[in-house]
C-alpha cells in the first residue's frame, strides 16, 4: 500500500509533513493552521490517512491536506 501526499510524494513512517490548509478539529474548538508541521508520522491501515501529533494531541489526518516537509 502506497501512502502519498497531496503532491504525489510517497510518505513513510517517521516522515514530517506540513498542512496545506486550515483544518478544524472535530469535537473541539481548535483549528490547525496552514503551515503546521507534523513530525514523526505513523501510517494507518488506510492509504488516505496518517496518524501524527498536532496541536498537543495525537490525531488522524487525511493525506489530501498534507505535503511532505
Automatic annotation (TrEMBL):
<dbReference type="Pfam" id="PF03831">
    <property type="entry name" value="YjdM"/>
</dbReference>
<feature type="domain" description="Protein YjdM C-terminal">
    <location>
        <begin position="3"/>
        <end position="69"/>
    </location>
</feature>
<protein>
    <submittedName>
        <fullName>Alkylphosphonate utilization protein</fullName>
    </submittedName>
</protein>
<dbReference type="InterPro" id="IPR004624">
    <property type="entry name" value="YjdM"/>
</dbReference>
<dbReference type="InterPro" id="IPR013988">
    <property type="entry name" value="YjdM_C"/>
</dbReference>
Amino acid at each position: 500500500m502506497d501512502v502519498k501526499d497531496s503532491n504525489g510524494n510517497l510518505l513513510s513512517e517517521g516522515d514530517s509533513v506540513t498542512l496545506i490548509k486550515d483544518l478544524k478539529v472535530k469535537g473541539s474548538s481548535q483549528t490547525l493552521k496552514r503551515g503546521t508541521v507534523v513530525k514523526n508520522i505513523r501510517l494507518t491501515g488506510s492509504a488516505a490517512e496518517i496518524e501524527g501529533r498536532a496541536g498537543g494531541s495525537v490525531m488522524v489526518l487525511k493525506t489530501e491536506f498534507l505535503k511532505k516537509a
